[in-house]
Each structure stands twice: as structure tokens, then as C-alpha cells.
Amino acid sequence: MTSEVVTAPRRQSRRGAAFRDAGPPVALIVIFAIFSALSPQFRSTDNVQNIVDAAAVLAVVTCGITFVLMMGSIDLSAAGVMGACALTVSLLVANNRNDNGFGLLGIAVAVLLGCAFGALSGLALVLLKVPSFMATLGMSAVGLGVATLMFAGVQPNITDTMVKGLAIERFLGFSYLTWIAAVCVLLGWLIQRYTRLGRYAYAIGGAEEVLALSGVKVKPYKVAVFALAGAFYGLGGVMVTSQLGAGLVQAGDGYDFSAITAAVVGGTLLTGGRGGIPHSAVGVLLVMVLTNGLVQVGVSPYWQGGVEGLIVVAAVAAAVIPQRRRNQVVK
């Protein structure tokens, strides 16, 4: 009798979790069907390819921010880090401002720079005890300052055919950037699923005190998660540079909020301990389908930011309703 009483809530919890996990994919299918019915152009093959290609950079940035959110932290550094990395790669590959032509090495340096920015954010969090949103917001400002110094009033236009080709050339109907994003999503899922870093990121978000009491040194893993996120942002900066054909300080504008939106909509909690890369990948597609669909049916692009904000509030509210009912408190 006692075991039945104990297992019943567990079964209900598992069913509730399964329902929450199924919500975003079902919403994606429903929204796609609605826009397909409203606009024949929306469901065309070319438009679907455009949606997926447009989601590439956001998917990579969202991979990074998802690991931070899984820990229950927040990361607002994406815009600054992407700007600094965009200027770095544009000045290291063939361009109109200098004689450099480092190719893949230039891309690697930009990604490593993003990793370094992320590590600094993590160190500020664990050593200086600066809240994550403040530490990363400050790091974003540092990144924008570095990017502005490198920009030096003259836009560096890239002439490197390999980097420009990533956004132009296509394979099986999709740009190379889309395939890079797919590899990043797969890599992020593998890290989340099969590495200690991914498992501990979940554990830190779910019950950091318990993890620390079990003998795990939490601080190095926090720094590692922020460094990993920074590497994804650095690659995102490279991808934007490929799309624009130039290095811009504003390369990462808006990606921080859009990535948080996609992750939350996909089912990754801001409080940590639930969600992950597959959830966030669905969230990216959901956001991009909604954005594209609104344009296709004639809604002004100026409304898109407001729509994203409403989606975030609605998604967070839906996620915390069970907790409110259980705890009867609002923090």
C-alpha cells in the first residue's frame, strides 16, 4: 500500500515531464500548419530552406547559452563576444585592410577568443562572486569595446573565398552554415548526454548544494560551461561575418535575447535543471518559423521583438505554474 502511494506521484511527475517535453514540438507543427494554410508561399520548398538557413547562427548561439541556462545562470555576453570575434576573424583572413590570409587558423583564433571571454565571465562568477547576468553583461561591454578598437573606423571587408563561401555555397539544398549549425547541435547534445561537463551542468542547475556535498568541485565546471558557451558565440561571430562579407561591431546584436527566447520556448528552464540542446533546437525552429510566418502573412517586422517578448513571458509562466502550485510562493 505504501509503495503504491509513493510511486503514484512519481508516475504523475514522469507523465507531466513527458507532456512538457512534447509541448514545443507539437506547437512547432501546429504553427507551421497554420501559416501553411494562411500563405502558400510559406510552405514552399524555397521558403523552408530559407527558414532553416536563417536559423543557423541562432542555433549555434543557442547551443552555448543552453549550457549556461541548464546551470541556472544567465549569459548576456553573446552580443559583445560575437562582435569581437567577428572583427578578429575578418582581420585575420584575407581582407581589404591588411595582408593577412590565415584562413582556418583565423577562424580557430576567433573561436578561442570567444572561449577566453566565456572563461573570464565564469571566473568573475566563481572568484569575485559577481552574479552571472552582471558578469556577462560587463563582458559583453568589454567585447564591444575590443571590437570597436579593432574596427578603427574602417570596415574590414573579407575577400577570403572559403569564409564567404560558407554562406553562399550549398550542399543538398542548404548552405554550409546550416550544416555547421547541425554539427554544433549534435556536438552539444553529445557533450550534454555523454560527458561529465554536461551531466554536472544539469546537476548544478538542479541541486548545486547536493553536488558540492558529494565531493564535486563545482567552480571549475562552472568556468568550463561559460568557456564552452563563449566558444559557440565565437563561432557564431564567424558565421555572421561570412553572411555579411565584413566584420561589424554589431555582428551579435539581438542574438542574446533571441537565443534565450529560443531556449526557453524549447523547454530549457531559466532556473536550471531541465531542458537541453534538443529542446533548444526545437525552440530555435519554432522562433524562426513564427518570425518567417508573421512576415509571410503581412505582419510588420517591427512587431517581431514584441512577439518574442510575449513568447518568453508566456513560456516562463507556463514552466513555473507547477512549481507555484506546489510551493504556493512566488519568488
UniProtKB/TrEMBL annotation:
Record keyword DNA-binding present: no
According to the UniProt entry, its GO molecular function terms are:
transmembrane transporter activity
Q: Which UniProt keywords apply?
A: Cell membrane, Membrane, Transmembrane, Transmembrane helix
Q: Where does it localize?
A: Cell membrane
Q: Supply the source organism for this entry.
A: Asanoa hainanensis
Pfam (any one) = BPD_transp_2
Q: Does the keyword Protease apply?
A: no
Q: Name one GO cellular component term.
A: plasma membrane
Chain ranges passing through the membrane: 21-39, 51-69, 76-95, 101-128, 135-154, 174-191, 223-242, 254-270, 277-295, 301-321
The protein's name: Ribose transport system permease protein
Bilayer disposition of the protein: Multi-pass membrane protein
